[in-house]
Amino acid sequence: MSKIPPHAKKVFQGDVYEIYQWPQQMFDGTVKTFEVAKRLPGVSIIATHQDKIVILHQRQPNTDWHHTLPGGYMDKPGENPLEAAERELLEETGLKSEQIFHWKTYNPGGRLDSDLHFFIAPNCQKIAEQSLDGGEEIVVQFVDFEEFLEFAHHENFHSRSLIIEMLKAKLDPNHKNEFKKLIFKE
Amino acid sequence: MSKIPPHAKKVFQGDVYEIYQWPQQMFDGTVKTFEVAKRLPGVSIIATHQDKIVILHQRQPNTDWHHTLPGGYMDKPGENPLEAAERELLEETGLKSEQIFHWKTYNPGGRLDSDLHFFIAPNCQKIAEQSLDGGEEIVVQFVDFEEFLEFAHHENFHSRSLIIEMLKAKLDPNHKNEFKKLIFKE
């Protein structure tokens, strides 16, 4: 990816985005202005309860209903990714896992610097009611592992880095077994 | 996706990004500022020459070597997607197709409004030498259809929407046949 160098200048500060520009020397010695957007990091959680995986059916103001994993932007100052993942999972589903762990961090790279931290929350217990803010309508659904993998083919499932993992699991029985073990911490 | 409404205010104009903000009414009647980045649209071309598909091995200033399809941002004023696709293909590879057509447009949605227009350029002929700018180093490679699908598993192949198509083709023989026919215009 196009890493933002230390001498880059922040030319915009918003709520979600920062824009950086810098003079970049090209291969032929000429100099061009490069521009990269840095977006608030996000968290996304694969949570399981007994033998089921949590999928949210949700809409936000000016989006249609779509399916996602629990998660959201890290917009609370001082909160680390684990804390954000635990908070989002609890608010959106009322669930908590004593075994939650960081799985991987995805960043699209190129002109967009945006970390998405994936967590796995095995063996969740329901410890509270859902607690949504005014910008969320969320129905919590529980699906088994095979149904979960089929979400890779849903038009309205919006998690491309996860879809790639799901399709790879469908292609390779060993990968599929490993993925299932990882999620359910068997 | 979070569509940018007509009353949104442009709060930043850069070379690659525009940032829009607007007051969004939430489900509970409260109002929150929403922020979306609009990025220059891009084009990406699946080009074939005889029974091979064109893959670029390239690096840009401050990126590592990686594999991509021919393509780029639409940064020439007044140019439409088809013109941009023909120009990028010609500059990066020296190839031209008389049968080039628009395949699909991908937009990640959410807080990023960024059209990526995919074109298919069957039966290309070499009509010129590669003509790169100072920010490109590109080696043109030709791979057969099976090798092409394997790029879905390469760590440094950077086209997630295409990777999803490739993995789906690998999963379903019918899908695979249709995809091959589409690309080679057989």
What would you say this structure looks like, in words?
Two copies of one chain form a homodimer. Chain A has 186 residues and is of the alpha+beta class. Helices cover 23% and strands 38% of the residues of chain A. Chain A has four helices and 13 strands. Chain A has helices spanning 81-93, 145-150, 160-171, 173-184, and strands at residues 9-13, 17-25, 31-39, 42-49, 52-59, 66-68, 71-73, 95-96, 101-106, 112-113, 116-121, 125-126, 137-143. In chain A, strands 4, 5, 6, 7, 9, 11 and 13 form a seven-stranded mixed β-sheet that branches. Chain A has a four-stranded mixed β-sheet with strand order 1-2-3-10, with no helix packed on it. Chain A has a two-stranded antiparallel ribbon with strand order 8-12. In chain A, helix 3 packs across helix 4. The longest helix of chain A is centred in the middle third of the chain and has 13 residues, at 81-93. Chain A starts with 8 loop residues before the first strand and ends with a helix.
DSSP strand tally of chain A: 13
The coarse overall form of chain A would be: globular
User: Mind describing the biggest β-sheet of chain A?
Assistant: 7 strands, mixed
Q: Biggest interface and its residues per chain?
A: A-B, 49 and 49 residues
Q: Indicate the structural class of chain A.
A: alpha+beta
Give the helices and strands of chain A as they follow along the chain. EEEEEEEHEEEEEEHHH
Quaternary form: homodimer
What proportion of the residues of chain A is helical, as a percent range?
Answer: 10-25%
Radius of gyration of chain A: 19 Å
State the helix count of chain A. 4
| Distance between the first and last residues' Cα of chain A | 35 Å
Residue share in β-strands of chain A: 35-45%
Low-confidence stretches of chain A: none
Average pLDDT of chain A, rounded to a whole number, is 94
